[in-house]
Structures are given as C-alpha cells and as structure tokens.
C-alpha cells in the first residue's frame, strides 16, 4: 500500500489539487491529512469537502489547531490568524464546521501514529521544531513511525542514543526507513510552505518496502495568492505563498 500524506492544507485549493494529482501519479491509494485544513487560504469550503469525501472513502484526517479554532478560537493565535479564522467561519456551513469539530487529535494505524502537532501533548499544539522536541515526541509513543504537521518545513528525525537525529530529505528521493530505528516525519506544508520554496509539500509512504518519499509540487501559487487578496484576507498570507517564507 502506498499512502499519500498532506499536512497544513490551509484552505489552498490550488496546492491541494496539485499535491493530490502528484500523489495519484505516484500510485497512492490511501490518504492521510495531518490537520489544519483551514486558515490563511481562500477556499476553506472546497478543502473541507474534498477531505471529507476522502474520509468517507476510508482516509484518515486529524485535527489541527486552525481547525479547532473554528469552534474554539482560544488565545494562542496572532491577530491576523484569528482574522482569517473569523472569515473562514463565515464561509463554512454547519455540516462543514461539524466535520472539523469531530476530527480526532490523533489516529494510530498499525505501526504508525498520525497527529498534527506532537505525540506528547497533541492538544497543546507545541511544535516539533528541534531535535529535543522530536526526542520528546518519539518518547511519548511506541509507534515505529510518527507523522506530524504543524511545522511548515519538511523534516525527518530518527531515534538514536541521546537526542534524535535530524535528516534533511531531498524531494523525490525515496528514503528506506530502517526497522531498527523509530522515525518522526514532517511532510511540510501543502498549503503554505515556509522554507523559502513556494512549491507545495507532501509525501508518500510505501508500507510494503518501508520507503518514504518527500515531494515538492509546483502549483499556481499566484492564483491562490490573488484569491486571498480578493477575499480581503491579510496580505501577508498572499505574500507567503509567493515567496514560500
């Protein structure tokens, strides 16, 4: 089985369409959505609907902090992000909002854990942005392979004595994951990359041979940015799509 993984879709229809198409071409037949379906982007309804359709067909989706904020805004988001959440709420009908509210914080599937933020406190929304944080997350689960979103940069960590090691994946190059190690993979943001590359990020896992491959997928980020501006959302969100920062 080959699993397609998308994180941080952020209401970016163009990026999601491009990643789904690329993963279909890579022979993916199973799907995992690692949270933050909404926020920042201009097409929240479309993204929620496409993920909901996949979930009805057997896909996995987990709750992200932006998804949770539709019902419970909280106090951890900056002003612009909250403005986007307020706007997003007006774009979603009751059934779409209910779908987001019902998403689980984490899902275990065979030897894999899917979670948006981290394994040690999924509802606390702390980032796995360092070797120490990766070690903390790996220590909180017995899963051989953990997939996270939340951090918008692709990364791959693996267990070793002491803190986890960081491996920087190269797009399009399959990585054999040794069964003697435990792994934590962050596919990167589909809908709002922040590593200086505007191409959408996603990944696939081949469960038969234990290979993981990170992808970067060019898409019409200028159109997605123009839609953000047309919706009168904060311009910074459009600019991020153009620069990937």
TrEMBL record:
Top-level lineage group: Bacteria
Domain Calcineurin-like phosphoesterase: 1-208
UniProt cross-references to SUPFAM superfamilies, sorted A to Z: Metallo-dependent phosphatases
Xref: InterPro entries: Ap4A_hydrolase, Calcineurin-like_PHP_lpxH, Metallo-depent_PP-like, Pesterase_MJ0912
Family the entry assigns: Belongs to the metallophosphoesterase superfamily. YfcE family.
Name assigned to this protein: Metallophosphoesterase family protein
Species per Swiss-Prot/TrEMBL record: Pseudoxanthomonas putridarboris
